[in-house]
Design a protein that fits this description.
This protein is of the alpha/beta class. It is built from 25 helices and 25 strands. It has a seven-stranded mixed sheet, with helices on both faces. The protein has a five-stranded antiparallel sheet with strand order 19-18-17-16-20.
């Protein structure tokens, strides 16, 4: 890609390159990122983008490459390859680099399926762990050669340590000799010129035989190596020289081994730098929320969705995303609007995205974006005035337009800020139109900013041009930075001047002059803009009204749902309390029946019957109180089509009943074998015939005894109940009453006739029997009894 340094500087590209380098963790990686080149072919660009995406996938899984210890050791390796001896710190650094190579390679091999491209790069990292281990074991953490480096070094150092201990022991004995100490300045020893000495007073020099190695500044103290220690001192010097010689030999040996692998280590450093650069590019893409666009041909469509200026994103703060689209026959985007509204930002955003793609970097736009691989990028941004060349602002701008026009080709991108400004508007517009038409005819894609009305009008006359404007909030008198495609923008210069503090008398006069200025084209554009504003305001009001209506609809739906839930919860509580009350009443009734059966006197039976009726009345009263408490808001219902002999649904019980009589706002109804009086408001008329409940004609002996002692006839069920023709919920209520009476009557077993049908009635009945406290066991009937169409139930004793 052809692009000048001036264009890159105008776009702010050096800052972007610096941001990439700053995210590298190694020196070689930073150097590589700072010099990242533009790629030539779509295949190279696609491969580079794929590498960055692999690094992003690793980062998303928090799998960082351990490159922190990689430093640039290539110079040291090159010197070693030429026979030079490396210092200890250089060798230690090389061992750390080799260990990092091994760890990174191992980690990427483990995740080769996730990042195959990065794993391929890691294969260039040399596997030299034996050399790294040899170097690491030869040095202490302080960087000093270790005794482990060689047996000869250990032996030589042991000799040195032994001589040091012997000399110190001799000196300790001397310093405990009072006569010897009296000749010293102080009772201590030190080292001068690698020899052990004591501080002898100058006047006692002849009394302490030995070699003088140094003296104090005043000459009053002489540092003397006692004669008795000279031999040991000589032995120590020889041993220390052997240590130095062995250390030099080890360093030279290690350096030679490094020199033999210098080329492989240098290649590994380059591969590590490439991995570091890929990781930095992934980190930068994450911060920019960048994505890989679809790569288009050089003259293909430009579609940047929700694109943001990368440098503004890195600077922090909120950046307004915009769509920048040039597709089909559109070849030039004409951006207009107020100053400081974001026109130049739009220009440089497109330019930076174009060069980022050429470098193999994701662009700060949403998924689904498309971006051509431009052959060259040319920009004219900012003031190019050059007084040294005798060029005014306009002259320098025209020179830039000349150079751009000479350099463009099919597939070029031209970015021109404030085209042909700083001169007569009419002539400037003519120059601008001529330049833009020529650039498009030569196959270039153009993005231009302008305040010239004639240039804005091009989009209305030439389908190759598309207008776009940066928004301006007239209420706050501030730009919105929102790019609107398909509209020309007003400069809003007078509004901006007023916001900047220009006196009102001046701005009012300016508005009056502007209202009557300009030719027919300017007035037509102004009228069109006013009409567009009016329509936009109406659309905004309509959208707000629609949103308010939708919000109200959702609120009403939520209220209805809440009300439905409240009703269901109230009904559930009512039914639970009602069931509890009925269960209590049934239990008391069963106890009363049992007592009636056991009575021998009619008088006692009558008394128990009256007590039973009182308990039933009390149960009804409790049910009514529960209903009044839980459903006070229930609206009264009219009798409607209720008629004697007809069917109705009892709202409280959710049960079909037969109406037996109607009088005084109440009705006597029957649910199976149970009769009760209910308010008309609790009954809803329904169609259909009343369910038929058929019992066998036989009566048990226990029933006959109960009838003999009862004050009034007591109806007791037989041993067989016919449920055919009933719905499951109706049948369940009848079965429950039938079981109560049969068990109370002392029956050993009963037969429930439900038929075959769909099987739902049979399943409902048997599920009830599973949880009934009366039932000891139940079974399907035999062939003689009716088969699976009946269920034989045995009661507990």
């Amino acid at each position: 890609m052809l692009v000048s340094e001036r264009t890159l500087r105008d776009l702010g590209f050096p800052q972007l390159r610096q941001a990439l380098a700053a995210r590298c963790r190694t020196g070689p990686g930073r150097a590589r990122a700072a010099a990242r080149p533009f790629l030539d072919s779509p295949a190279e660009v696609a491969a580079a983008l794929a590498i960055v995406e692999e690094a992003r996938r690793l980062a998303e899984r928090q799998l960082a490459m351990q490159l922190g210890n990689v430093v640039d050791v290539r110079d040291s390796c090159e010197r070693a390859s030429k026979g030079g001896m490396l210092e200890a710190r250089e060798l230690v650094a090389i061992s750390q680099v080799l260990i990092a190579f091994d760890r990174v390679r191992e980690a990427l091999e483990e995740h080769a399926q996730l990042a195959p491209g990065l794993e391929a790069i890691s294969r260039r990292l040399p596997q030299l762990m034996p050399l790294a281990t040899r170097i690491e074991n030869s040095f202490e953490p302080s960087g000093e050669l270790s005794d482990r480096a060689s047996p000869a070094l250990r032996e030589a150092r042991d000799r040195v340590r032994g001589l040091h201990a012997t000399i110190k022991a001799r000196l300790d004995r001397m310093l405990h000799d009072e006569k010897f100490v009296s000749r010293l300045r102080e009772s201590y020893y030190s080292i001068r010129n690698d020899r052990y000495v004591v501080p002898v007073l100058a006047q006692h020099r002849n009394e302490v035989p030995g070699i003088v190695h140094n003296a104090s500044q005043t000459g009053q103290t002489l540092f003397v190596e006692p004669e008795a220690l000279i031999g040991l001192g000589n032995d120590l010097a020889i041993a220390q020289s052997l240590v130095v010689e062995e250390e030099r030999r080890i360093l030279l040996e290690l350096s030679n081994r490094v020199g033999r692998e210098a080329a492989r280590i240098a290649e590994g450093v380059e591969a590590a730098a490439e991995l570091d650069e890929a990781e930095a590019a992934a980190k930068l893409a994450g911060e920019l929320r960048a994505h890989t666009p679809t790569i288009e041909p050089a003259d293909g469509a430009l579609e940047l969705r929700n694109v943001r200026h990368p440098l503004l994103v890195l600077a922090g703060g909120e950046v307004v995303p915009n769509d920048i689209i040039l597709s089909g026959e559109r070849r030039a985007l004409v951006v207009s609007g107020p100053n400081a509204g974001g026109k130049t930002v739009t220009l440089t955003t497109v330019g930076l995205c174009a060069v980022m793609l050429r470098m193999g970097l994701p662009v700060p736009a949403a998924e689904g974006s498309r971006l051509p691989l431009y052959r060259s990028v040319h920009a004219s941004i900012g003031d190019a005035q050059d007084l040294s060349q005798g060029l005014s602002t306009f002259s320098a701008h025209i020179a830039e337009l000349r150079d751009i026009d000479a350099a463009v080709q099919r597939g070029s991108l031209a970015l021109i800020d404030e085209i042909a400004a700083d001169t007569d508007p009419r002539e400037g517009a003519a120059i601008a139109i001529a330049v833009l038409e020529d650039l498009i005819e030569r196959g270039a894609t153009v993005v231009v900013t302008t305040h010239l009305e004639e240039v804005k009008a091009l989009a209305h006359m030439d389908p190759r041009f598309l207008n776009a404007r940066v928004g301006f909030d007239a209420g706050t008198m501030t730009p919105t930075y929102r790019l609107q495609l398909g509209f020309a923008g007003a400069s809003s210069a007078i509004e901006l001047a007023a916001r900047m503090g220009l006196p009102q008398r001046i701005t009012d006069r300016a508005r009056d002059l502007a209202l009557h200025a300009g030719g027919p084209l300017a007035r037509a554009l102004a009228a069109a803009e006013e009409e567009r504003k009016r329509l936009a305001e109406e659309l905004t009001r309509a959208q707000r009204a629609a949103e308010a209506a939708e919000a109200e609809k959702r609120a009403l739906a939520a209220e209805r749902e809440a009300e439905r839930r409240r009703r269901e919860e109230g009904e559930l509580r009512f039914r639970e309390e009602l069931a509890a009350e009925l269960e209590l009443a049934a239990h008391e009734a069963r106890q009363a029946v049992a007592q009636i059966k056991a009575q021998a006197k009619v008088q006692d039976a009558a008394r128990l019957e009256r007590e039973l009726q009182a308990k039933v009345d009390e149960a009804k009263k409790r049910v009514a109180e529960a209903k009044a408490k839980l459903q006070p808001e229930a609206a009264p219902k009219v009798a409607g089509d209720l008629r004697v002999g007809g069917l109705a649904r009892h709202v409280g019980l959710n049960q079909r009943v037969e109406v037996l009589e109607i009088s005084d706002g109440t009705a006597l109804v029957a649910a199976g074998l149970i009769k009760m009086r209910a308010p008309l408001s609790d009954l809803v008329p329904i169609g259909g015939e009343k369910p038929k409940v058929r019992f066998a004609s036989e009566k048990s002996e226990s029933l006959k005894r109960a009838e003999a002692v009862a004050a009034a006839p007591v109806q007791t069920p037989g041993q067989r109940l016919d449920l055919r023709g009933m719905r499951a919920d109706e049948a369940l209520a009848v079965v429950e009453q039938f079981m109560d009476r049969a068990f109370g009557a002392g029956e050993d077993s009963v037969t429930l006739l439900h038929g075959h049908g769909t099987g739902a009635l049979k399943q409902t009945v048997r599920q009830y029997l599973d949880r009934s406290a009366y039932v000891r066991m139940y079974r399907p009937g035999s062939d003689e009894e009716g088969g699976d169409a009946v269920t034989i139930v045995a009661f507990r004793t």
